[in-house]
Write a structure and sequence with these properties.
176 residues; 2 domains
C-alpha cells in the first residue's frame, strides 16, 4: 500500500510555494501517489480553466524537481475549499495533506482542524499576517497573479513580501 500525498492548491500567487513543499516531500517518497486538488465555483468554464492551470503548474513543478514522468492525479472539484479538500483527504485516505496559510483568517486553519491525517501547513515565517485587502485580492485575480497589490499597497508590500520568502534555486519563478 503506497503513501498518498494530497497537495491543495488555491490558484493564488502562493500556490508555487505550497507546490514546492509538497514536491519536496514527494522526492523522499518515490512510490507515493501524488494527488493535487483545487476547488472551483460551479461555473463550467472555471473548472476547465482550473484544470489547465493545475496541470501546467504541476507539470512545471515535476520538471523542476526532476520527476517529469511521475504519475499524478489531478482533482478539480466544485465547491468551497474546506469541504472539497477535507473530503478528498478522507476519501483517499491521505497520509499527508499539504496546504498553504498566507493570510488570516485562512481556510487552512479550518481544514487542519477537521482532517484526520498529518497536515503540513505552509506559510511565511514570522509575525501573524494581517487579513488580505479585498482590493489587493481583486487585483491579483484580475491580473492572474501578475500584479500582487492594489494601488494603495503596491509601494509598501513588495519589498516585505520578497524579503520574507526563502530563496530557491530549484523552481524558477518571478516570486523567487
Amino acid at each position: 500500500m503506497s503513501t498518498k500525498i494530497v497537495i491543495a492548491l488555491d490558484r493564488s500567487e502562493y500556490a508555487e510555494i505550497v507546490l514546492e513543499h509538497g514536491l519536496d516531500h514527494a522526492t523522499r517518497e518515490p512510490a507515493a501517489e501524488l494527488h493535487f486538488v483545487t476547488a472551483v465555483s460551479d461555473a463550467r468554464a472555471d473548472a476547465e480553466e482550473a484544470t489547465t492551470w493545475l496541470d501546467q503548474l504541476v507539470r512545471d513543478g515535476l520538471e523542476a524537481f526532476g520527476m517529469p514522468d511521475r504519475r499524478v492525479i489531478l482533482h478539480v472539484r466544485r465547491g468551497r475549499s474546506v469541504p472539497v479538500v477535507a473530503a478528498l483527504a478522507a476519501e483517499l485516505p491521505a497520509d499527508l495533506l499539504v496546504l498553504g496559510r498566507f493570510h488570516v483568517p485562512s481556510d487552512a486553519d479550518v481544514i487542519a482542524s477537521i482532517v484526520e491525517c498529518p497536515t503540513l501547513v505552509v506559510g511565511i515565517a514570522g509575525t501573524e499576517l494581517e487579513p488580505q485587502c479585498p482590493a489587493c485580492a481583486e487585483v491579483r485575480r484580475a491580473s492572474e497573479g501578475e500584479q500582487l497589490f492594489c494601488e494603495e499597497h503596491a509601494g509598501d508590500r513588495d519589498p516585505d513580501l520578497v524579503n520574507r520568502l526563502p530563496p530557491s534555486t530549484s523552481i524558477p519563478s518571478r516570486m523567487w
